[in-house]
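User: Last request for today: this protein with zinc ion, please.
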Amino acid sequence: MNSIGERARALNDKIVERRRLFHTCPEINLSTVQTEAHIVEELKKLGVKDIKQGLAEHGVTALIEGGKPGKVLGLRSDMDGLNILEDTGLPFASKNGNMHACGHDAHIAMLLGAAEILTENKDNLKGTVKLIFQPGEETTYGAVAMLKDGVLENPKVDAIIALHTGGLWSPGKPGDICYRPGPLMASSDFFTITFTGKGGHGATPHLTVDPIAMAAQAFTALQTIVSRETSPLDSAVVTIGAIHGGSAGNIIAPTCVLKGTYRALSVATRERLGVRIKELCEDIARGMRGSVEIEYAYGPPALNNDKEMTEKLRLAATEIVGAERVREIDEPTMGAEDMACYMEKIPGTFFYHPSFKSESAAPHHNPKFDIDESVLWIGSATLAQFALSWQ
Ligand SMILES: [Zn+2]
Ligand SMILES: [Zn+2]
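Assistant: Here's the final one, the structure of the complex with zinc ion:
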């Protein structure tokens, strides 16, 4: 391990202390008021420059200027929790009805740890590091709002990296760093389909137009977009998660609503799924004498790790934990992450920092979710090492 790793390991207690502070006050979506205030307070103590608040309502950025000329690297952490009642029994458990059940509290603490190491090593730093604390990752509104508020400007950010802790999508053990060049996560879009017919008596279906019959056809037909129209070697998902229509066995309902999500790893497949969902539903509605309205809620695009950035990440992580603990992730996941919104604009890499204490650990977004705090320094060290060595 190099001196950055040694320093980070010595800072672990402090990183844990900060993680617990953020853990006690989880806030959701863009309303991260207290979290923002705590981050700003910690950044002031570190003496970083140009602290800006209020991006995406309560996001924060700050700069660490290196002693040598160079490019600008964004280090990004999300900062929002979830509307889950915590049931960990931890002494620092949240009592406000929300919970950091995805590890974003640890992300903030690890980024502050990296910031501390980088301020101490400013003379060896080329260019500038822009610290980016983003709310609203879980709701996927955060990155888009940060971009709208100019997060990648003044100074212009050339490249960006971030990590996710826990046991999400990755096979590693605490203390590992997991990377993957190329596609890592899927685009995530949502749809609401409303079939409208003509309600009436269940005994006289011929006098009605039945939207539940349309919904049943649509449910089956939508499955064929993946099974019959998408290459078996491409990856796509169409899920209908909710169907609501009708109130009693002898009433034909006037409307029936389906809600779902579709995922893809490429831009072309993403666009095609959206178009085909609409075409099939419109044709089913027309064929069955009804009508249909479809609303889309677009989420982040697919996340593609830049090959060169990912190789530099692999090398940085190797400096910290050694080659045997740096693992390549075998395959992408159809989960999504709004880090992809930045990476659509500039090269970047998103990597995993496994921190589940055991294989039976409670999953992400579970009231008993918890992480192994003893490895938080590895996240800080890897971010700092990357910033010091990428250019
Ligand atoms: Zn999450
Ligand atoms: Zn998360």
